[in-house]
Amino acid sequence: MKIPAFLIVPFMTLCCAHAQDTTLTLTNARNVLNARIEAMAENKEKTNASGQVLQDLAHLQENPISLNKASYEDLAVISLLSAYQIQHLLDYRKNYGRIYSYTEILTIPGFNPEILGYLRLLTTLSEHAGMENVNKRKKNIRANIFLRYSRITGKDKKYLQYSDQGIKEGATYLGSPDKLFFRANLTIRNKLSLGLVADKDAGEPMRQGKIPDSIWNATAHHMPRGFDFYSGYVALRDIWILEKIMAGNFHVRFGQGLTTWTTAGFGHSPTPSGAMKRTMGITPSTSSNENHYMRGLAFTAGKGCLKTHVFYSNASRDANVETRDPENGDPLKISSLQESGYHRTVNEIKNKNAVRMINWGGHAEISIPTLKLGISLMKTRLNATLSKPVKPCNLFVFQGRETFHTGLNYIQQPLSRCLLFGEFSLQDMTNIAFIQGLIFFHDRLELSLIFRHFSKKFFSFMNAPQRASSGGPETGIYVQLSIHMLPNWMLSIYGDAYRHPWLRYRVHSPSYGEKFSIQSAHTILKKSKLILTYRYKKQLQNITEERYINIPREHGMHRTTIQVDHPISPALIARTRITWINCTMDQPAVKNNTSTGTAFAQDILFRPAEKPLDLTLRWVMFHTDDYDARIYMYEHDVLYYFSAPSYYGTGIRAYAIARWKANRRLDLWLKISRTGFLKEPESLKKNGQWQKTEIRVQCRLHF
């Protein structure tokens, strides 16, 4: 599964049958999560490795952790909690014992009804989290098997039949439009964990079949046999002084993401706690992202306040190969690393697993009551030279085969309601980057301040810090403020200002940018939630004017959203949403330099408490002047599948999702969606898809 811009956690919109006040709290928490993920979808540069982040949260929805048993590392997986909140929760549990009610948590510093909603979604107060019955607690064996099939029906010229003479390289997909996914995992006594993931995307071939010999030879015999991508892991826990041993595919996440971080983060957030990353250490890779993971061996050792993590990885990466060794065909020079993970055409298959990337390093951390301090080391080496094209914007871009990073990160609580955090990273002993943040909590006030700086040549293959772009020099400051003005009214504001001191892709001059957002969430008519959101973004972008070429001009976007959630009953919620977008370009030579977009969506969510069937319905009308005015809107989907597509053109979209709990071990999902364009965008018109229907079926067996 690829997630470049289609991100959403399905659990965010599941509505449980609680009392009326509980329903409102949970609904508001989901709305905040939805807003954060839509913001990620709008910035595609940050979404290439987001799958694992969302998988972690979705997994918690299905397997909530116990607040009365969870360690600091367990709670850190809930990326919506800050280190300040986690530490105060652990201190409260240490001083007062077991937590018996979620409302009891409101007495802990840093917690409010919004955070309480997150905890209700992702945790439990039971002593036996994730175990459904007495027999399972005795055996302590858990297993899950997922099977998913999806396909877009209708004629698509990309999948037309080809012949030995008629096919053109890079023009036709070599596989069927079927998308297949398989996932299985097994946990025994919380000591041994095993997992396997297999994935085939639409257009990817599963065997040579009827593919002509000329095409087979053109791919250098790299044509896949079976699924296009496989991922697996084996993990052992609590062996002598070793807390964890892992072999296979895994992720490493330390500090604030400057030195070592293989997944994405939420970035800009309506809540202050989301501005800071938490060290999650070494965890299994359970997503189907094909380029952001490590494959090898890792372990965590230590007890108490001192821990050490060590890892070694030797994995293949997709890349654009420029030159190869004439004798053995090994790559000598590459122009870029690929992120999509698609292998549908001859050229894409040629780039599959083109280079080897070796990563090794470690992280040591020490924890005392008011300070967590960590030191990270990581060496990265490619078996080919990364050489970018000779352009002014690539003057400070990394060129070469290997890099070495050292990093120092910390989290300190100097005062009871104040938290300091940061990370300093050094690449090849010359290029620096650092992040420094402050979070302040009060009863009705939460404030975040973050300053970041990346020098001109700082680069890392495996990091994901908070920043406005995917790379290059940058300096910026981020401010976030949440005010709980009344018991039923919360105001969230954030702003980000940044500068790029050198040229970037599609910006041929030093540039700057600004982002601003304000959101008001208010309970109306005692049971309905009204959310008003306004976002503004301004940045420079190249345009071509008469007598000039590539003149950077200001490009601005204003987005306004009105959303109303109305619980008709504990099991039935109606959600109405209207979004307007206005994009402007500072282009004096053009009279009409404004484009607009509008979308109206109506959702019906039916979640009966004691019935085996859940239903979700949506109907959307949308109209945009062009692609710049596209509108991202999250969509409900089957479990562990994430989507927040962009609407552009003029059309109507509708879908229905049914989940049937056949018995205590079998769950079935079915999603049918239909999109029709009244005025089809050019990008779809050339493929002959005026209308398209997508079917997705999934089943899960769990024991």
Structure, described:
The protein has 703 residues and is mainly beta. It has helices at residues 20-42, 51-62, 72-76, 83-96, 113-122, 134-139, 213-218, 346-350, 682-685, and strands at 65-66, 123-124, 141-153, 178-188, 192-200, 229-239, 242-253, 281-284, 294-301, 306-317, 319-324, 331-337, 355-368, 371-386, 400-415, 418-427, 431-441, 445-454, 474-486, 489-500, 511-524, 528-543, 551-569, 572-585, 594-606, 613-624, 631-632, 646-647, 650-663, 666-679, 691-702. The protein has a 24-stranded antiparallel beta barrel. A two-stranded parallel sheet has the order 1-2. The relative contact order is 0.12.
Main pleated sheet: 24 strands, antiparallel, barrel
Give Rg in angstroms: 25 Å
Q: Provide the structure class.
A: mainly beta
Structural shape = globular
Strand content: over 45%
What share of residues is helical? 10-25%
Total helical elements: 9
Mean pLDDT: 82
Distance between the termini: 25 Å
According to DSSP, the number of beta strands is: 31
| Contiguous uncertain segments of 5+ residues | 1-26, 44-49, 129-138, 162-166
